[in-house]
Amino acid sequence: MIAQTIQLSLAPVFVLVAIGNIMNILTTRLGRIVDRSRALQILHAKTTGPDHDAVVIEMRFVDRRIQLIGHALLILVMSGIGIGVTVGTLFLGEMLGREFRIATELTFFTAISLLMLALVYLLLETRLVSRTLRLPPELLEFDRQDL
After folding, report:
1. Does any domain span residue 42?
2. Which of 26, 62, 93, 120 has a 20 to 30 A CA-CA distance from 35?
3. What are 95-113's pLDDT values in tens digits?
4. What is the CA radius of gyration of the chain?
C-alpha cells in the first residue's frame, strides 16, 4: 500500500515543484525591482521640479510592485505548506491505517486555490509594469513612412 500512497503523492509534489519555480521567478523580479528602487532613491535626492515628480511617481509604482510580489510570495509559501500537509495526511493515513480523505481534499483544494490567488497577484504586477512602461508615441515615430 505504501507504493500506492507514493503514487498518490506525486501529483501534489509536482504542484510543489511548480510553486518553487514560480517563487524563483517572483524573487528574481523582486530583486530587479529592489535594484530599481535603490537607483530611484538616489535620483530622488538629486532631482527637482518635473524630473523629481517623475521619480516620485515611478517610486510609487515600484512600491506597489514590491507589495504585489510580497503578497504573491507569502501566498505561495502558504500554498506550499498546504501541499506539504496534503502529502503528510496521505502518509499519516497510510501509517495509521486510516483514511483522512476530507482533510486531504481540503488541504489540496486550499493549496491550489492559494496558488491561483498568487498567480492573480503576479498578473496584477505584470499589468502594472506594462501600464507604466509604455513608450511615448512620439519616440516611436509612427509618422515616419520610411520604416
Report:
1. yes
2. 120
3. 898 989 999 999 999 999 9
4. 23
